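forwarding from the other thread:

> can someone predict this with zinc ion?

sure thing
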Amino acid sequence: MRNWLQTLAYRFQRFMCGRYGVDVLSKHLNIAALVLVLLSLFVPFLYPLSLAVLAWSTFRVYSKNSYSRMRERDAYLRFIYKLRKRKNLLKSRLRDRKTHRFYKCPGCREYLRVPKGRGKVYITCPKCRYEIVRKT
Ligand SMILES: [Zn+2]
């Protein structure tokens, strides 16, 4: 029994050799497919979409083109990073709305947080050193 299991594990290891494997994108695709399957109980046309997402995830795991899969993963991680950054900015804007004002730097599009009630101020962007004048 154990020998049979070891042989199967060895064969699987040899099969997976040179293949991309599981990464964060395929994990999230599996979760999305599961959510879509559950939603398809109420909305039937989502079922084929969930199968497509699952097929894409499976294709990624067994793909031998690691470079393309890494580029997909990196694009996904950049997208997630932008979403998280936007969410954190929204959170801090909501938290500090009574004490601070937020301006967007015209030079680098970074958000600048300035205390309220200081009158006319010269704001220097810490990232690109661009200077703007605003009334707080
Ligand atoms: Zn700037």
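The longest strand covers residues 100-104. thats all i got for now
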